[in-house]
Amino acid sequence: MPKISVITVNYNNAEGLKSTIKSVLSQSLTEFEFIVVDGDSSDGSRAIIDEYKDHISQWLIKADSGVYQAMNRGIEMATGTYVLFLNSGDTFRDSQILWEANKKIVGNVEIYFGNLMFTHCGKEMLQEYPKELHFHYFLERSLPHPGSFIKKELFDKYFYYSEDYSIVSDWEFFIYAICKAEASYKHLEMVISNFDLQGMSNDPKNKAKITEEREKVLEKYFPSEYKELKERQSKKIQGERKLSAKVIRTLKRLFRSKVTN
Question: Domain 4-221 classified CATH 3.90.550.10?
Answer without folding.
Answer: yes
